[in-house]
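User: Sequence in, structure out. Go.
Assistant: Echoing your sequence, followed by the structure tokens.
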Amino acid sequence: MDVSAQLALTVLMGVFLAAVAVLLTRVEDWRSYTPLAGGGGAYGEESAYATEEKPAGLIRWLTTVDHKDIGMMYGAYGVIAFVWGGLAVILMRTELLTPAGDVLAPMAEAMGVANGGEGLYNALLTTHGITMLFLFGTPIIAAFANYLIPLLIGADDMAFPRINAIAFWLLPPGALLIWAGFFFVPFGVDPSQLSWTMYTPLSIEQPEAGADLMLLGLHLTGVSATMGAINFIATIFTEAGDDVNWANLDIFSWTILTQSGLILFSFPLLGSVLIMLLLDRNFATTFFTVEGGSPILYQHLFWFFGHPEVYILVLPPMGIVSYVLPRFAGRKLFGFKFVVYSTLAIGVLSFGVWAHHMFSTGIDPRIRASFMAVSLAIAIPSAVKVFNWITTMWNGRIRLTAPMLFCIGFVQNFIIGGVTGVFLASIPVDLVLHDTYYVVGHFHYIVMGAIAFAGFAGLYYWYPIYTGRMYQRTLAKVHFWTWMVGTNITFLAMLLLGYEGMPRRYATYEFGTELVSLTLIQALHVAATLGAFLMLFGGVVFLYNFVQSWYEGPEAGLDPWDLEEVGLEGREFVWNDQRIRTAVTDGGESSGAATEDGPTDDD
């Protein structure tokens, strides 16, 4: 596409965003209740937001500023993004079943994607990485945080409810822009093929207009995350109940607070990098070009955001595990203060390790050595958490419910992902393995084997709160075992592929030397693909169970996890109990509890 067409698309998108801004400013009384004076009330008190009932139907979801509603919308958005990113990787893994490019080439020809099957593979690789990190990872954590943080700290709502709503509504247009290249292929707009790191000078030279749209969409998601981070920090500092202080603040809130600090310092830098990249692509500036700027400068700026982003994604899941796991071990979290301190230490150290992604770029060896030292040091607070989780389970009364199984799976996968990362922190090892599938296996043990597992633990644990019902426990355990087996088959095969020298980001492969057997490489790719399909099956089971149980599952009752018995009932379940009792008092029907450890109708 020529420069004039790209400029036209840019102007069109600017007009669209301006129209959205004007529409938002013209909406009068766009929330269904007006805040009254006063801070967060205690449980059982009349809410400060109670002047009008919410409207029904679609209008409720379009106009709501209730933190619980917004949390559920974040969750639905995250699931949709997860499906998109998952289907993209299924296509990629299907292509890698055989050495030749015989799956995506016909699809690319039918769609009209530039560069044939390899171009479509690069586009899928790009959309998979961007979607999972920016459209699924951060929003799904925001879903938990929006719904639960005010409940856990005894607040009525977020500190800035309208900003909370705006932060969410920036995400759908962001997603549409990021995916736009796939929708507009018939009109001559190819999807971005820059990979999720968007390295220069390639990202400046590639002409796809879909890349410009993707960069604009990424900018919107960054603004959304920054607005949300400010809101969470303000909420925890100013809206907590009188009985909540720093000593008894729950561990999930601690991790969200730390994550929000990381977002506040890293995402604005990403926004600046994206603007400079757009200027280089469309207006002939030279921020990152070889002639005027520096491609290495781009990597420094990108990874100063990019590595804290990993901890932005992993710290809240660590908080979920630290919160949920003790409930089913029958005892309080061991070493609570040390878990908090290690969370803060990870947050600080995360800004000092970015250049370990750049060991192979030829930067000064003295700089490499310093980053190697900090990269090895950051493993210590992570190890502190692992030992705390294991010690919490030691001699505990463990109940192997679905949330507990996913917590245990998280710990196991996190250990493998963490240990393999320590090897990559060593410069000599990294120089050998950096551009191989070993890095892919290590990274996915963390983001899928650990982060996703913690997310599922949280979804199952808090399911009775946001649905009022209990899921089918047999299907939940089928989901767990398919994912536990699938993740380890897939990502262990990737680690072995890396040891065999298989380069990452390639759509085809060819080995025929005495050192590396093509048959072995293909067998490992087949294993990785079978594991991915096993996870696909487990994901379908999860979605069916989640939706079907929402409508037809047995009512959960007042104490679905029998937490009062062990004295570990959290504030959110106290709030839920009072909500149910209030509904019964007002004329609703009472129901018995249906716990995962007791008999239920769904068995």
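User: And one key feature?
Assistant: The longest helix spans residues 116-153.
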